[in-house]
Amino acid sequence: MKKNRGKLFAIVATFGLALYFLYPTYQSYNFSKNISQLVGEDSLKYVTENEVSMRDAKAKRIKIGLDLQGGMRVVMEVNVLEMLKQMAKNKDDQFTLIMADIAREAQTNNESIITLFQRAFEAKQVRLNRYYGSLREENETILNRLQDESDKAVDRAMEIIRNRVDQYGVSEPTIQKQGGRRIIVELPGVSNENEVRGLVGTTALLEFKLMKDPDIIYKTMEAIDKFLAGKGYADSTGTKDSTKKATTTGNTLSALTNKSDTGSTAISDAQKTPEQVAKEHPFLFLARPNQQGSGEAYVSENDKIKVQRILARQDVQKLMPSDMAFYFSSKHLFISEGVKYYALFGLKKTPELTGGVVVNAQATIDQNYNQPIVTMEMNSEGSREWARITGANVNKRMAIVLDDAVFSAPNIRGKITGGRSQIEGMENIEEARLLEIILKAGALPAPVEIIEHQGVGPSLGSDSIAAGSNSFLIAFGLIIAFMIFYYRSGGIVANVALFINTLFVFSILAAFGGTLTLPGIAGIVLTIGMAVDANVLIFERIREELATHKTLRAAIDAGYDKAFSAIFDSNITTLFTGIVLYQFGSGPVQGFALTLMMGVTANLFTAIIITRVVFDVMTDRGTTEINFG
């Protein structure tokens, strides 16, 4: 028993970890079941009371694929060729003919557009510097630059689509690149084709909006807070009250100080419970102003939807200045105690400029300070307006807004002439590259075209779930029955290991945020067969050893030792196969490969470790006979 103590601990710990990762799935199922049994105000009250728990459970549960719950699958293609046309200069008839040849070949050839582009120009013996770059540049230099622009165009389109899908509120979307110019978007639970086309098929709207004065923002927030608390409110542009700062400690407001016209402290909430503060300050408890007075407020991911609902109310909108609106940051700014916090900005509704004036943006490293920066260039019209705007708003903040989400809000240090600006403050080059992509997204140089869309109805999803579940249960039941019938008590131990193996597969799927698809269920069924195969090899070896009149303990030891190499080889080769399928496959193939790899990994643990420990414990306790059929 002592020699297996470490293995027993590992088994118990792994089993507990599996239950931990599967609990959100069980919790989410219970929430859905309870909601389906409620109607009207009871349903709304239940959702309000359990909103945070429901969101957490939904985020951590096993994700269900498009083929199981229905939705839309959209395949889009970034028109890189059109981008190359727009980038060219001195276009003539020869250029038009070459581009037409490339377009025809691209319809039947899956090679990258840049490869086709290079081949076409070389076949006509036309140098690229005639249309791109300077006259001294070589073809290779120009091709490398065009390839980089092509890659960035696809990344840009993916970022725009991801931003829109996140704001649209689609649950568990999948957005992935396929090949060099295609993007696949899967939107579970979405059935309206027109909405999908509007969501992913229209040009992104990039805007530059000035942030309102911090005092006005805080007074507006205070007015909303007082209104919601039933205290009445001061005009949002008045001077009656001013919320200067609010800091947070955990989920409580550690200090919320209101000052009257005389400057005396009216109230202090530092010693109050979170419930008291939330009741007295229903808005400022959710949206906590930056104590540095820079204008933004911080909202936790758990409260973001609540704040959006409050700001969308017509009676609340009447409290805001007519030229002001609130916008959330596109990404969380920081994480505190495991909770993500987003910034809430008060911006002017009317943009100062749109993204159409941006002709180029480049992420790079500042050689003087070794920090990531983004340089931005505008056309002549944008340069004139930018000089006027920046000159009139020195030391104010200009928000870069894409599809109503704030990606950055840098401070204007001085008047910027010539249309070339430098944006600082990024933490790393990846963040700078993202901002570069965003700045180029206002007027997409490469149009995105929907080349295929496929709707999966909810009824088909239900049928798929039923078919997949039935196949899994039938396979599981038949194997259990066979193992008990043929291997008796040894088969019972194998079935326990089989159940744990299946549990591990689903828990790994939940832990790594995998998606369960119909092909994935097929992979699990195959894994069950392989798990039984390993036990069959072991039990047959044990039976051979028992036939030579060895003791039970010696037969078990010899059976596991002699079967190990065959089990290990078969599982490792299957694992490699799964890796290759996942790496080079797509869609259903990846779903099958994912569960297959997880099952093989779990199988090695359950077939070799768990069953062996069970038999060792049985023999240590004096069992002299175990029936292996």
Short description:
The protein has 629 residues and is α+β, with helices and mostly antiparallel strands.
Task: Please provide a written account of the structure.
Strands 9, 10, 11, 12 and 13 form a 5-stranded antiparallel sheet that branches. The chain contains 19 helices and 21 strands. It has helices spanning 5-36, 40-49, 51-60, 66-69, 80-87, 93-106, 113-123, 139-168, 193-200, 214-229, 274-280, 304-312, 314-317, 380-392, 429-439, 458-511, 518-547, 552-584, 588-620; strands spanning 63-64, 71-78, 174-178, 182-188, 206-210, 242-249, 252-259, 265-267, 288-289, 297-300, 324-328, 334-336, 339-348, 353-354, 358-366, 371-378, 398-402, 405-408, 420-423, 448-456, 515-516. Strand 3 and strand 4 (182-188) form a beta hairpin.
Number of strands: 21
CATH architecture of the largest domain: Up-down Bundle
Structural class: alpha+beta
Full CATH superfamily name of the largest domain: Multidrug efflux transporter AcrB transmembrane domain
Instruction: Tell me the β content.
Output: 15-25%
Give the fraction of residues assigned to helices: 40-55%
How does the overall form come out from the CA principal axes? globular
Oligomer: single chain
Write the layout of secondary structure elements.
Layout: H1 5-36, H2 40-49, H3 51-60, E1 63-64, H4 66-69, E2 71-78, H5 80-87, H6 93-106, H7 113-123, H8 139-168, E3 174-178, E4 182-188, H9 193-200, E5 206-210, H10 214-229, E6 242-249, E7 252-259, E8 265-267, H11 274-280, E9 288-289, E10 297-300, H12 304-312, H13 314-317, E11 324-328, E12 334-336, E13 339-348, E14 353-354, E15 358-366, E16 371-378, H14 380-392, E17 398-402, E18 405-408, E19 420-423, H15 429-439, E20 448-456, H16 458-511, E21 515-516, H17 518-547, H18 552-584, H19 588-620
Parallel strand pairs: 1-21
Antiparallel strand pairs: 2-4, 2-20, 3-4, 5-14, 5-17, 6-7, 7-8, 9-10, 10-13, 11-13, 12-13, 15-16, 16-19, 17-18
Helix pairs in contact: 1-3, 1-16, 6-7, 16-17, 16-19, 17-18, 17-19, 18-19
